[in-house]
Amino acid sequence: MKKKNKKEATQNHAMLFKEASRYLVGGVNSPVRSFRSVGGDPVFVKQAKGSKIQVEDGRTLIDYCMSWGALILGHAHPEVVKALERAIRNGTSYGMPTRLETELARLIAGAIPSVEQVRLTSSGTEAVMGAVRVARAHTGRDKVLKFEGCYHGSADYLLVKAGSGATTLGIPDSLGVPADFSKHTLVAPYNDLAGTRAVFHKYGQEIAAVIVEPVAGNMGVVPPEPGFLEGLRKLCDEHGALLIFDEVITGFRLRYGGVQDLFGIRPDLTCLGKIIGGGMPLGAFGGRREVMKVLAPLGGAYQAGTLSGNPIAVTAGIITLKCLARSRPYRKLAGVTKKLCEGIQKAANAEGVKVRINTVGSMFTVFFTGLKVRDYKTASSQDSAAFRKFYHALLQTGVYFAPSPYEANFLSVAHGEKDLHRTLQAVRRAIQTREM
Ligand code: HOZ
Q1: Which residues are catalytic?
Q2: Ligand 1, residues 32, 35, 123: which to mutate, most atoms within 8 A of Cβ?
Q3: 55-73, pLDDT tens digit by residue?
Q4: Where are the domains of the chain?
Q5: Most CB atoms within 10 A, among 20, 47, 202, 233?
Q6: Which of 138, 159, 102, 107 is closest to 269 using CA atoms?
Q7: CATH architecture under which domain 78-327 falls
Q8: Is 239 exposed, middle or buried (0-12, 13-18, 19+ CB in 10 A)?
Q9: Ligand 1 center to residue 300 CA distance, Å?
Q10: Domain 6-72+329-433: which CATH number of 3.40.220.10, 3.90.1150.10, 3.30.750.24, 3.30.365.10
Q11: Which pLDDT band, with edges at 50, 70 and 90, does 7 fall under?
Q12: 235-254 pLDDT, tens per residue?
């Protein structure tokens, strides 16, 4: 990271936020960034490298948000930066096909077991909207079943009991969504196969698709219990519905082939985002050729975007996937994450603080509760005041967690022993000096 120039004035985040709030609604471009649930002013980033962000007040923080999971290689990875510098000289957008798009699609289809063909989009939200449209067009049915606390982007009909920022800000069912738009959205509790079966019992013939985060990351990390995903596959097959895995967070994060490869379950459609864009705006959805063919121009389901397949974003994605294919860092990442989480748990136990840490691979969430967190209900049983205090104590000592108790934290290949050591020191201090 660039050494701080003495002449560069450090900036006060409160002032920056005040100024931002004059022109940007709530001072941010995505509500979960606003610190509403943890209180205080969001930190403004100046630059970032590896596992660290340098913020405008002059401090350097260890980052566990990592652009909400997009940056598995760390900030400003040299290979990604080099490829982008080269790509940008060739122009930034054409609105015409490029070989790059084919290459990224080939990499995705080669990695994700259930995917034969893909459509590239500019965000995870668009990817999900496209996948749901394909499922509806393919089945000729309208209803979609989602799970409480799962977040699938900000499409109208999926902002129903939605996690992430929607839950963080207490608006899981958004204003501005006509009841008519969400009347085809059904909801069941996560990890509740009996509850899901009951919904199928009532609406089975009308359900186009079940959409699920196969490892939930938007109510905090919540892994699927044994049999849950298998049960969903079976229910979908029995009722002629499609199974959509929203792997926007988990795709290329937990394993190169996603959760579906980890657990050996094949969805009909998969949504991707974050990592496949290597830190640039990119999403994708895909599935079997026979299902995807309903999409225009082959079929009658329309989906489009001026910046879809943007050459700069696609370049970052290609390099990122190639690095991951080459290095397969998953086992190592999971090991480092486990060590970190064990350290946090130990620090909490030593002080008698009730903490449950859910971790899968390189994702983790620290829940301030004594309960096992297996669904939205148990996730929201946590002591949010304790989380707030813990959060700010960490921030003061140089550690940046996602600013919400309903989000995942992420490690990257750039997080090393020193980061772990510093983080655990900060955690111990935060827990010891807390008034929880
Ligand atoms: N999907 C992200 C949380 N899981 C939200 C990113 C953002 O709103 O900035």
Answers
A1: 151, 246, 274
A2: 32
A3: 999 999 999 999 999 999 9
A4: 6-72+329-433, 78-327
A5: 20
A6: 138
A7: 3-Layer(aba) Sandwich (3.40)
A8: middle
A9: 31
A10: 3.90.1150.10
A11: very low
A12: 999 999 999 999 999 999 99
